[in-house]
Specification:
This protein is 52% helix and 10% strand. By secondary structure, it is an alpha+beta fold. It is elongated and about 95 Å long. It starts with a strand and ends with a helix.
């Protein structure tokens, strides 16, 4: 009885393996699925049922030797799904584990070919690398990677660069009051930012050469849809924690504190990994519970801003009132 096994070619096309000979799929007919030997000079062909478990007709008179890379294709097919599910694992490690579990014989050329196949499979699941500024914007928009903390840091540094820090810190300065309002822009929906900036901020901008420099910087880099960092990348009508990178930075700081040198002993490193894994399991088990916020100041700020956002969405306050209210919480002190 002929043993039938389905695999995919390196290009992802269906193949049928029968007695270590490979057949490519030709198409469907009323009798079943037709297959032909992958060697072009060979006339061998078969016809299988729809489920590819039984041969209905066969012509197995091959004029060549059996395929030598059957094991390689079997391992490569088995690894493609694992390569996507375990995208951070080195391909060579995946190959070693698969070879140990399946007990197949491979050569170095086979391993290199499988490794290339794994990389190809992974690349198909990832978006293409951006090649110009619009593509960079599109990629960042899809990732939702903006961070309010770093945004306001950039604005604050430019305020200092323009020599406006003294005015900014003066509570009685008209320039300082105007600069504080700028920081409320990040809480508007991205499609409203440009109109709010023009109608609410430009109309009351103080006459000052340094303020003009700062305004030019904001317009060129952040306000219009064609600027370097358009509002869609950094503005959102929410106070979600997803708009900051605090969680990532906190994890990095916490994980680094486990080590006292840049090249720790491997067993020390593994112990830290296991402890981190335990904490992750606990966090996963608690994912449906209400999150406890221990930072009282942040909790007060979060509740206050959520209340202001809700009033703005329901039309109870104007954009000018909203800007003034939220800028208090996001401006630099």
């Amino acid at each position: 009885m002929d043993l039938l096994q389905q695999v995919l070619s390196e290009k992802g096309k269906p193949l049928l393996i029968i007695n270590e000979f490979k057949f490519r799929k030709i198409g469907k007919s009323k009798d079943g699925i037709k297959w032909r030997c992958t060697v072009k000079s060979c006339t061998s062909s078969v016809c299988s049922d729809e489920s590819v478990t039984t041969l209905l007709t066969s012509n197995l008179n091959h004029n060549h030797e059996k395929s030598s890379n059957i094991n390689r294709q079997i391992v490569a097919n088995s690894l493609k799904r694992k390569a996507i599910d375990q995208i951070t694992t080195r391909p060579l490690k995946l190959i070693r584990n698969e070879v140990q579990s399946s007990a197949v014989d491979l050569t170095l050329n086979d391993v290199n070919s499988i490794r290339r196949s794994v990389y190809r499979s992974r690349r198909k699941t990832l978006p293409p690398l951006p090649k110009n500024l619009p593509e960079v914007h599109a990629a960042l928009t899809n990732l939702d990677t903006s961070c309010r903390f770093h945004l306001t840091q950039a604005w604050w540094r430019n305020i200092q660069k323009c020599g406006l820090q003294t005015e900014y810190k003066n509570p009685d300065s008209e320039i300082g009051k105007w600069l504080h309002l700028i920081f409320g822009l990040s809480l508007f929906p991205h499609y409203e930012v440009e109109d709010v900036f023009i109608n609410e901020l430009m109309t009351i901008q103080p006459t000052n050469s340094n303020v003009t420099k700062f305004t030019n910087y904001i317009v060129e880099n952040y306000i219009s849809s064609t600027s370097t960092f358009p509002p869609i990348l950094w503005a959102s009508n929410t106070i979600s924690s997803e708009r900051t990178t605090n969680a990532c930075e906190s994890f990095h700081a916490s994980f680094s504190s486990n080590f006292y040198s840049s090249h720790p002993n491997i067993f020390v490193f593994l112990k830290a990994i296991i402890e981190t894994q335990t904490n992750t399991y606990i966090a996963i088990n608690s994912i449906e519970e209400d999150k406890y916020i221990s930072n009282r100041a942040y909790l007060v700020k979060k509740v206050a801003i959520e209340s202001i956002i809700e009033k703005y969405k329901s039309g109870k306050i104007t954009s000018k009132e909203f800007l003034k209210s939220v800028s208090y919480y996001y401006s630099k002190t």
